[in-house]
Amino acid sequence: MSNADVAPPAPVIPRGATTQVADGVHVIPDHRIPLVPNVGIVEGPDGVLVVDTAMGPANGERVLAELRELTEQPRVLVTLTHFHPEHGFGAQVLKRAGALVYNRAQAQELADKGEEYVAMFRGFGPAVAEQLEGVELVRPDVVYDGRATIDLGGGTVAELTEQGPAHTRGDQVIFLPRQRVLFAGDLVENRLLPIVPDGDVCASRWIEVLEGLERLAPEIVVPGHGEPAGTELIAEARDYLVEVRRRVGELRADGLPDDALTAALERELAGRYAGWGSHEWIAPAIGAFLGELEG
Shortest CA distance to 51 belongs to which of 41, 66, 61, 59? Predict the structure, then answer.
């Protein structure tokens, strides 16, 4: 049997794998399972913050169970790095435990595109469709503009900052100044190429966002997917996008038609990033920068 014949694992977050990455900061790791995100749980004496919920009600129940293994704290707040199904479509379960806090652009993007993304993801195969059984798209309880601060007590403060449009229109990061931990969502991955899901991606602004995240100087970066690490994850994502933009400009200046440009640069980048996953997003990234040239 070849690797191509092996079905990917079901997109279900692991049980009993929660790890502490800093004082009061826990991560349910994705274990590099496709369509499973890293989920954050941040504890303070006056409350707990959940970052991302994974996809669908069954995953939401798992997140809630992991949360309750850590704490019975009654004050629970839940936020998402962005609206995509694998990051936030378990919110209906977590809403039972506490309040959902989204930025305004994220809430609007969910309203505009949520049902479309449910249908799209159901088409990814029966294992994914199973996780979306019974999914309900729920509205946030709190909507903010620009920036919000959540004080969990004991010096643990979470700074929620609207960053979109970049990967999505409503990207958000969560920074913990005392612990120097950054939850970056899909603005940053670990050994996975940046995901360019649709026409709302703003590729050059994504670079600017990453430059701003570097200036925060976090000690621990929790990416959307892959293992937490240091600020090198931000730099790697930035360097990749800068290189794609540079090469698109050079090849366009050489007079290559867009189809030939895309094919040539896709081969070039696939070779350069041979050890990275998500090569299917190379061509969309090229297309995003080509679109900027046309704009």
Answer: 41
